[in-house]
Amino acid sequence: MKVLVAGGAGYIGSTVASACLDEGITPVVVDSLVTGRREFTDGRDFYEGDISDGALIDRVFSEHPDITTVVHCAALIVVPDSTADPIGYYEANVGKSLDFLRHLRRNGCDRLVFSSSASIYRSEDGSPVDEDAPLGPQSPYVRTKAHCEGMFADIAAAGQMRVLSLRYFNPIGADPKMRTGLQLKRPSHALGKMISCHQEGAAFPVTGTDYPTRDGSGIRDYVHVWDLAAAHVAAIRRFDTLLTEDTPATVINLGTGSGTTVRELCAAFDRVVDTPLATVDADPRPGDVAGAYTAGDRAERLLGWTPRFSLEEGIRSSLDWIPVRDDMLRD
Ligand SMILES: O=c1ccn([C@@H]2O[C@H](COP(=O)(O)OP(=O)(O)O[C@H]3O[C@H](CO)[C@H](O)[C@H](O)[C@H]3O)[C@@H](O)[C@H]2O)c(=O)[nH]1
After folding, report:
1. 141 partner at 20 to 30 Å CA-CA among 90, 119, 122, 173?
2. Which residue's C-alpha comes closest to atom 14 of ligand 1?
């Protein structure tokens, strides 16, 4: 079986491609390399270019007519950048996704697995959320994900595509074989900041200490990226059972079901490293929310998927990835 992984040189897409390879599914990668890394495509079928480039997508399908399914992870994902450049974000994430769907349809492909984000939930009070929880995207970036989900559902309802949107909670860790991982050198997300603060001997700022959570810090659902990748493999394998004429579009949360506050994440980090991480209380980030974690059993029911890795294993994996990343990616 062959799948097209759009954005397959990025963090999630490259890990999904690795998991596919390990499961006997051949990934064909399309990536513009705007944020993705060529190194993550080594030894894989790779086409450099844009998902909106019709001639490129036509070429991919003519050279790989046996592609059955598309995993669409191609997107810009930086929240503050999306606030500074909403036009660029809507163009890249929504406009180009629409073009991409047109190209897929022209090439007879109607199976789409879409990378969505659990940050589209309202998540104001730190409660668990299932797939029916109210949405309330807080930034242009997250709104692009919500718009894509809506757009794809409309197209699916017209019988022109079948779409499974996977709403990721907060991915951590790397491919256990260390082929790929987070490409950013200075990530701004919580675990990334913890690792850089720990390396530099600086205090980690706990941004927001007055949220309605058990200890006042923000709550999230940290899920190992290798578990996420396994969920994609299950989605690819079960696609035709899940997405039918009667149910042409659906959404599934991908999280562990365990909420972890920032202070709990710090404590887990300390269990993994030798010297404890210093922390300092800080103001909340602009537009930040208390957060959420997944509820319900839809992923298990529909995909037969449950996450296997613990929080500590995810932290350990992220730490192990740093020297590999520095060696593999020189900038
Ligand atoms: O230096 C930091 C960084 C973060 N946090 C806190 O850690 C929690 C998690 O923050 P992250 O930035 O790691 O995660 P978010 O869920 O806020 O957002 C990230 O994960 C989302 C996935 O759901 C989207 O991908 C989004 O683009 C990305 O920024 C929040 O309470 C935040 O306030 C700190 O205390 N200190």
Report:
1. 173
2. 189
- Distance from C-alpha of 172 to C-alpha of 160, rounded to nearest angstrom: 34
- 115 in helix, strand or coil? strand
What distance in Å separates the CA atoms of residue 328 and residue 261, rounded to the nearest whole number?
Answer: 32
pLDDT confidence band for 49 (50 / 70 / 90) = very high
Query: Distance, CA 218 to ligand 1 centroid (Å)?
Result: 8
Give the C-alpha separation, 12 to 229, whole Å.
7
Which residue in 58, 98, 55, 54 sits closest to 74, CA to CA? 98
pTM for this predicted structure? 0.97
For the question of residue 141 being annotated catalytic, the response is yes
Interface pTM, i.e. ipTM: 0.95
Segment 295-317 mean pLDDT: 97
Handedness of CA 209, 213, 215, 221 (dihedral sign): negative
Specify burial of residue 250 (Cβ count, 10 A radius: 0-12, 13-18, 19+): middle
- The alpha-carbon radius of gyration of the chain (Å, integer) is 19
What is the strand order of the sheet 2-6 is part of? 45-48, 26-31, 2-6, 67-72, 111-117, 162-168, 249-254
Phi, psi of 102, deg, nearest 5? -60, -45
Q: Pull the structure tokens for residue 156.
A: 């699916």
Beta strands (DSSP E) in 228-289 are 249-254, 260-261, 279-282
